[in-house]
Amino acid sequence: MTLLAFARGPAMQVATLVLIVGMFWRLSGILLLRRRVAHAAARNPFAVRLLGGAVTIVTRTIPRRTFWPRVGAGVALSYVFHIGLFIVLFGGAPHILVIYELFGVSWPDLPKGVVVVASGITLAALILLLVRRVTHPVLKMLSTPDDYISWVIVFLPVATGILLSGETIAGYGTLLALHILSIEALMIWLPFGKLMHVTLVFAGRFMLGHNFSRKGAAT
Amino acid sequence: MTAGDENLGEMLARRGFGRRGLLKFAFAMTASLALPPALAAAMAENLAAAKRQSVIWLSFQECTGCLETLLRTDSPTIAGLIFDFISLDYQEALMAASGSAAELTLRQAVAANKGKFLLAIDGSVPVADGGVYSLTGGKSNVSMLEEIAPDAAAILAIGTCAAYGGIPKAYPNPTGAVGVEDVITDKPIVNIPGCPPIPEVLSGVLVYFVSFGRLPDLDERKRPLAYFGTTIHDQCYRRPYYDQGKFAKSFDDEGARQGWCLFELGCKGPTTHNACASLKWNDGTSFPIESGHGCLGCSEPDFWDQEGGFYTSLAGGAGPGWRESGIAAAVGIAGGAAAAFAARRKTPEAQE
Amino acid sequence: MAARRVKNFDVFSVDGLVDALLMEVAALLENFLAHKRPGIIDLLGLPLSAACLAALEERLGEGEIAVLLRVSGESHIRETRFPGVWWTRHLDETGRVVALLIEVADVPEILRADPVDMQHSLRRLGEATNFSLARPAR
Fold it and tell me: Which residue, of A39, A98, C63, C85, is most buried by count of CB atoms within 10 Å of its CB?
C-alpha cells in the first residue's frame, strides 16, 4: 500500500474515530463533573443567564483595555494566525472540496492568490508565536511539553499544505500523503492536549458568563 | 521461426527501405524516448547491424486489451516498423498453431533463442491454490513463468495486470493475482503499466533494447523514465485552469464545457505517472482528460481499489461512515461519563 | 554555451527563449567550424509554446534549399537564411510530426546517400542492365 493510500484509507478511519471518541469523552467528562453549589439565589432567570453566557463568548474576544500593554501583542499575533488559518481552511478550494465530499455543502472559494498570501501570513504568525513563547520570561516558565507538541502538530499541516500547493520539494503524491498524515496526527492529538481549546474556550466563556449573570454581574 | 541470419539493415533494404528511412525512424524514436538527437545516427547504425529480436509473448490472466491496443495502431506509422525489428515467435492470440502444436512452438522458440529472447507478459499471475485459476494446456501460469523466465534476456511486464496485479488483484482478489515482479525476482524486468499501456511506450522500449542491447533507465517501480518520469498533471493542457482555480463541479456543467480542470471530479492526474498527456492515444488523437473525464490513475498499482473510487477527488477520502461515527460518539460519552462519575465519588463535600 | 563570444548577432528579439535558442545555434556553428562536428537541437523535447516555435521558425527564415524527403511519410528539410542551419520536420504517414529538429552541419546527415545503399544501387543497376557491375564491397 502506498503512503497516500494509507493516509486516505486506514489512517483516516483511525484518526477520525479517535477524534470523535476523544472529543465526546473529554467534553462529557467535563460537563458531568461536580460543580461548586451556589447557595445564593439566582439574580437572573435561566433564559437571561443563557444569554449572559452567549454574550460573554463575544465580549471576551477582545481583552479589556487595562490589559492591552501586557497581553496585546500576543493576542493580536494570535488573531492574525487564527484568521489566516480560517481564510485558508474555509476559503481555499481544496478544503471546501473536502467539506463538500464529506457533508454535501459548499460555497464559493476565494481567489488562489488571496489564499496563498493568507497561508504565508499564517505560517509567519505561527513561527512568531513560538518565538514569543520561548523568549517571553513568563511564558517560558509556564510552557509545558503540551504547548510545544501542540505547536508542532499545528505547524506541520500548515507547512505541508504550503509545500503541496506550491508542488515543490517532493512529488505531489508524497506531499499530499504527508499533508493528510499531519492532519491525522492533529486529529488524534486534539482531544487530549491544549488544542482542545477549539471547544473549551467557548465552553469556558459560556460558563463564566452564566455564573456572572447568576450573580447579577455584568457579562 | 527463429530470428534469421541476415541483419535488419539487409532485411529492410531488400524491401526497398534504405538507410534514410532507418535514420528518420531513429530520429522519431530519440524524440519519443527523450534521448539526445545526436544518438539517432548511432541508433540507426546499431539497428541496421542488429538481428531480428526474438520476442516470446505469454498471456496470463488478462482481458487481451493490451495486445489489442498494440495491434490497433490503425495506420502504418513509423512506430509500426517495430514489428519488422522483432520476431514474435510465440503469441497465442495471433499465431496459427494451437493445442500440442502450440506447445511445441513454445518449446522450440525458447530453445532456439535461449538467453536472448525478450519475454513479454500480459495479464496477472494467479498464485492462490497452486495457480489453478489460469491454466494453458493444463499448466498454471506461475509454473510456466518460473520455467521460461530463467532463459529470457529480460522480461517486459505489459499492462497494469502484469506489472502490479491489475483488476484481478482488486479486492477481494479471489485468485491470488500478483504482478510478474512478485514471482520473478532475479531477472531484469521492465514494467509498462497502463490499462491499457500506450503502444508507443512498448515500441520505444523494444527499439531501445534492440539498438543498445540493454533496457532503458527505469524508476523505482521499474517503469521506463522516458515515459513515466512525469505525471499527467505535469503535462496536462488543462493545467492553467488548475493553477487559476477553475474547476468543473459536475459533468457537463458550464466549467466542464469550457474545458476546465477535472480535479474535483476525481481526476488522479497529479499522482499518476504516464505519458498520456503528451503522447496521447490513437496516434495522438486525444486522452481521457481531453475527452472530459478525469484520469483514473490506471498506470499506478492498486488503482481499482483506490480510496473513494474514481470520482472522489484526491482531496477527499472516505473515513468512517455516519453509523461508525455515531457509535464512536456513544463510546466517548460513555467513557467520559464513567470518568466523571469516578471523579465525583472522590469529592463528596459539595452536595447538589 | 559560448554566448559571450558571439558578436554581431543580426537577429533582435524580445522573446528570451528564442534568443537563447539562437545563441545555442551559434554555439553549434562555432563547434562545427572548429571540429567538423554536426549539432542537433530536438525542438519537441523543449518546453516551447506554439507561439515561441512560430517565432523561432520565422526568425530563422527560409534559405536557398528546400528538400522533400519521402520515406515513411514526408519529411521537410530546408536550409534557413543562415547557411549551415537547417530546419527539419519529420512527419509520419498520417501527417503527424514525429520529430522537429534544428540541424547545424554543412549538409544534414539524412540527405546523404549511404554507401551501403549505393552498393545496392550498383547491384540493382547490374540486374536492370544484365551486366555485372557490382564490385566486392571495400
Answer: C85
